[in-house]
Design goal:
Length: 425
């Protein structure tokens, strides 16, 4: 099954395209002119200023001063090449590290560099025209990761693996440090369980595992309750976090933006949260990123729930099949046992009839045979027998006692002093 066989939530494709435009819009062209072997900035347009950093004073300064950052500066190498050879050159995805320390960012540019010549034809400097491709590269990486996630969902990878990979992908690709958390709703939608949060501390994940959904229950509990995004820009002051503020302080969290994960029918599946170390409000690109991956998480959770339901249905069907097979087997065994008992009873009955017939031809004693050691002088009038084929004649009194006290004794037959004699005693 391919990722294209999976059904998307209604409107997902259109919303996704809008969000991608927001995340990765067009970049403005940059222009700058440099002079001398040190590449002193002679002029630059606003886009170049913005790319390098508005706070930097560029004009009249060498590139080495403007971009003192360490690392392989492909941009400087390209300028050196054009200045040295006098030949124009084009660089694709030239890497430049802008800024230092925690504010440093990696940028990429498509650049066309041309030599600037003096009156004598010598190379006096270099002019650069280009477009920043950082957003394009980030888009390519993000969409590659996004496709990989969809392929994981399509091949039925474990839900925890998909969600953990998604969280790590977002954390790695966003320029600002964020910590991603996915909580999954219980079947009743009243509680949220830990799904994935690879960068949040374990004590934090354990503490919020199982939180209730409801108004004012942090960012995630409230988003789940409202079925709409909840943006908390400052955890330290927001009343939604009154009950969780000490926990957030311990984890070093300053802001939390939570988006509900909803099924196609509107059922709550969970929440997708983006935490920040400092208080801050989201930009439109942040919200677009949250929507994109909340929809992706919805696909993963729905697929997982569908698979679980299918496995449970198959297990119930298999259990029912086994129970039916066991019932059929037991019924067959009972039927066979009943037939065996019937055959045995018929055989025993035939033996008893044969024994009774043989006894019928035996001499009829004159006196009762059931008087015990003391004997009984009464006339032998009634014949009795037992299951082992033994028989005896007795008087009505002793026959009555034998029938009452000896369970295996029965009237031997209707004729020859049998049942008729007993009934007319």
């Amino acid at each position: 099954m391919s990722v294209f066989d999976m059904q998307e939530p209604q409107g997902f494709v259109a919303v996704e395209q809008d969000d991608l435009r927001t995340l990765f819009g067009q970049s403005a062209a940059v222009y700058a002119a440099f002079v001398g072997p040190e590449h002193v900035v002679e002029t630059a347009n606003p886009a170049f200023h913005a790319a390098v950093g508005e706070e930097r004073a560029l004009l009249g300064r060498a590139v080495a001063e403007v971009l003192p950052e360490r690392g392989d500066q492909g941009f400087v190498a390209l300028l050196n090449q054009v200045y040295r050879t006098g030949e124009p050159s084009t660089g694709r995805d030239v890497r430049v590290v802008l800024g230092t320390g925690p504010h440093a960012r990696e940028a990429f540019f498509d650049l066309t560099c041309e030599p600037r010549r003096d009156r004598d034809g010598g190379v006096a400097g270099v002019r650069v025209i280009g477009v920043e491709t950082t957003q394009v590269k980030h888009a390519q990486r993000l969409m590659a990761e996004h496709r990989a996630l969809l392929e994981q969902i399509a091949r039925q990878a474990p839900l925890t693996e998909v969600l953990d990979g998604m969280a790590r992908c977002i954390e790695e690709l966003t320029p600002d440090e964020i910590l991603v958390s996915v909580l999954l709703a219980d079947a009743d939608g009243r509680h949220l369980r830990h799904g994935a949060a690879p960068s949040l501390p374990d004590f934090y994940n354990e503490a919020i595992d199982g939180i209730a959904t409801g108004e004012g229950v942090g960012s995630c509990g409230t988003a789940a309750h409202r079925r709409e995004p909840v943006i908390v820009t400052d955890i330290a002051t927001d009343p939604f976090w009154d009950d969780f503020r000490p926990l957030a302080d311990r984890a070093g969290l300053g802001a939390c933006w939570s988006t509900p994960i909803l099924a196609r029918d509107g059922t709550l599946l969970g929440t997708f949260a983006m935490y920040h170390r400092t208080a801050r409000a989201p930009q439109e690109a942040d919200l677009a990123l949250a929507r994109l991956f909340a929809d992706t998480a919805a696909l993963a959770v729905e697929r997982h729930r569908s698979e679980v339901a299918q496995r449970e249905a198959e297990a119930r069907a298999e259990a029912a099949r086994k129970a039916l097979a066991e019932a059929v087997r037991a019924e067959r065994e009972l039927r066979a046992e009943a037939e065996r008992r019937a055959d045995a009873a018929a055989e025993l009955n035939a033996q008893m009839r044969a024994a009774a017939a043989a006894q019928a031809n035996a001499p009829h004693p004159e006196h009762c045979q059931l008087g015990g050691t003391a004997g009984c002088a009464a006339a032998a009038e009634i014949k009795v027998a037992d299951s082992w084929g033994d028989s005896a004649w007795g008087c009505p009194v002793h026959v009555e006692e034998a029938l009452i006290h000896v369970r295996s004794v029965f009237i031997a037959g209707e004729e020859l002093g049998g049942l008729a004699a007993y009934l007319h005693r």
